[in-house]
Fold:
Amino acid sequence: MSMRNTERRLYDRCKGMSDKEYRMASAARSGLLYMRGVPGVALGDRVVVRDHSGRRRNGQVIRTSNEVVLIQVLEGTDNLDLERTWVRFLDQPFEVPLSPDILGRVFNGLGQPRDGRPPLFSRLRRNVNGAPVNPAARAYPREFIQTGISAVDGLNSLVRGQKLPIFSGSGLPHNRLAAQIVRQARLPGGESQFAVVFAAMGVSFSDADFFRKTFSDSGVLRNVVMFLNLADEPAIERLILPRAALTVAEYLAFDLDLHVLVVMTDMTHYAEALREVATAKGDVPARKGYPGYLYSDLAEIYERAGRIRERPGSITLMPVVSMPSDDITHPIPDLTGYITEGQLVLSRTLNNLGVYPPLDIPPSLSRLMKDGIGKDLTREDHGRVAGQLYASYARALEVRNLASIIGADELSDIDRDYLSFSEAFEQRFVGQGEHEDRGIAETLDLAWELLSLLPSQALTRVNTADLAKYHHWQEARAEPS
Amino acid sequence: MRNPRPYRQRDDAVEPLLTGQRILDTFFPLVKGGRAAVPGPFGAGKTMVQQQIARWADADIVIYVGCGERGNELVDILDSFPKLTDPNTGRSLMERTLLVANTSNMPVVAREASIYVGVTLAEYFRDQGYDVVMVADSTSRWAEALREVAGRLGQMPVEEGYPAYLASRLAAFYERAGRVKTLAGGSGSITLIGAVSPPGGDFSEPVTSHTKEIVKTFWALSKELADARHYPAVDWVESFSGYVASCSQWWAEHVDPRWAEYRAEALGILSQADELARIVNLVGPEALSPQQRWTLEGVALFKEGVLQQSALDPLDSYCSPQKQFALLDQMLAIYHAGVQLLALGVPVQELLRMPLLAQAQRLKGTYGNQQMQELAGFAAQANSEFERLRNEYAQHGKAAV
Structure:
């Protein structure tokens, strides 16, 4: 009986909480609202702020203590008259409703529909923050995804459940590359249930529309869930958006058993929004004004990709990170690279040479490649060929450097071979059409064709059996090119 | 957990920690009870180096602390270790491995504690008389957790937001490494190996620079080497080991007395070649003498044939000390033979064209640790090849005279 009374009292208090409106805001600046003396408020709770004109804004509790409750107002704190501002604590965290009907819908950063259709109703609602996965419950990703792009498949293979960002710069075709991967990604020789979650943070309308058109042209729009926050919309929404998108992705992957590809663009805008709030809160800045917890915060997002034991679905994450002034050591790409399983880096030089996709090979890397390729998965020689291409291209770049100093005529025969190898490699292997879909066998054969421009003594990363089978140096030299 | 466990006294006996990695064991050795750091920018292969050590080190117990790193890396260990066998005992690797998991999306306060959990576990086994290796990936994340907690506590930030006690905490942590006489009278050791993830690959940042002062073995990873897929990407210029002198005795007793001499010579050739490469970039290869050309090109023997080691190749992943020395010996022999032949007037182009060079660079993956006979066979073959050239040119020389 007494138990029941306690429960009852607790219920009344909670109910009371979300019924009451508080009017004790003590200050408001840069998107934050400071309240005094509100008891029983939980960190991360949702808040509705009503201003003098009756407009409602969404908010979230981001700090609580005995003296002060700090509310982050997602639509900003402009035009708030503190005397006439009412705050209601909803006593619930940010949640998104989930049901199979979510496919094909478009939402804003808070998970509210923006496609003119009614909101989604479902008994199943999940906290957008998710929960960290115990590593022992994870399954190791090892299914090779063929993207049809040689520089990705051959050298930096993507596997299901991987998080592989695209490091780009302003004006580089990262969106076209991401769209091409969405269009062409599949398991070699297999069709399967898939879905795409597209999360856009602070992008321009035209970029968002480019993706919508791509999805619609390739007939996948019904399998896409879009979360859009355009450049002119509240920056603070960008902090909730990727979490809402990943909560949907987790539902699709681990409840509905789909293979989900999540494309996020642009994580730099996310980090900037985080910095904005952190500065307003007065957190100690670490590098370039970004808070010290930027790493953990990014990890909370990126680590939600992966596979879970005994669940057929997967989440493959492809965030786009634009490097401010092409600086890969800037905190955002730097910390991203420490969390993600590799990176695809775009090169301005290659882009200016007209190479598409302009993938900068030396710094690009796929950490999960080693277990996703090889004998039964792609082809027996794949790993060694990739290593050889990397080594030969690195050497070729040194030779090119040398040639620019002493002139190509002064080079030895072997160095001249390297020079022609590097040209062919960039133009024919890295470069390809935006709608060209190369099979993995085609990619590897092309790799050997290029390696045949070099004598076998120079190829020490492949073994003699590979050389006997695929290398045709003499022929290559005899042919007029 | 934050206080070290007691022991009777420190023990100064020296025994190298063999990891089966040529660049580590032969060039920058670590001893049981030593402390080492592996700094490197992302993608340089810190985790692979750490995992290779966890796999092949000749310790009784390996403790792997995943501190603020990727979940999938721990899954990789959980998946692959049970299938691997320890080359020293022949039993499953998982039987001697302990994982402490705090992945990057787990609470930060626990991250600060995870390192201490690991080292306390290590002390528990040390006190039972075992040789323990603890690998912490990565201490930078631990330092960041320290920074975050300090920030929340309102402590004064010093360098890059880190609290003032960062250096002393790091030093106190690494001090828990060592070889000791335990209270029970046995002898055990803890070897600490910490990965460092400097932001932007900048080794002058606080965590790396403080760590560098504390550790005695420093395996600096280089972005340039990793970009060329030269793994392990341990930079032979930046790295150092304070245990070379003490290890040379062990190598002299157990493998070959010429170890220290050969190691020094190979390092000398490597740095000479780096110097020559710089000159070539200024004035072009024509300015070099044949001997210098040979050094510049022949250094590939050491880079590809010894230093580079594939973790994915079953024959090459673990390299026994005997094989390590045999390979180094072989490469030096070829290099010396080349120098001699050049003195006899053999053009450097002819030397560089020899298919022997490429074969020598593939030796590491051609013969396993048990095939020392075959390695010796290759040495004989190489010798006869050089002998043939020598005779040819000796006669040539006579004819010309």
Summary: Chain A touches chain B through 65 residues (CB under 8 Å). The longest helix of chain A spans residues 382-406. The first strand of chain A starts at residue 25 and ends at 29. The two ends of chain A are 92 Å apart (CA to CA).
